[in-house]
User: Fold this.
Amino acid sequence: TLFAGKTIEVSFENAARLEYGHYCVEDVTINGKKLPLGARSGRAVIQRDMLAALPQQVYITVRLAGHQRE
Assistant:
């Protein structure tokens, strides 16, 4: 995918093969570096200035896991 002048490849890891609605985002890495997630939202937001500082080829990996009980 081309976005903001970068070639971005996004992959999802769902090792437990959980169905939609039975997983949450456990972590996100960009070119091997972990991106902080929102405290309770489980969201990762990549700011445009952060994206601009990355190399031309960007690899994003989203690892999914089962919902955690509160």
About this structure: The mean pLDDT is 87. The beta strands are 2-3, 6-13, 23-30, 33-35, 57-66. The helical segments are 48-52. Residues 3 and 27 are 22 Å apart (CA to CA).
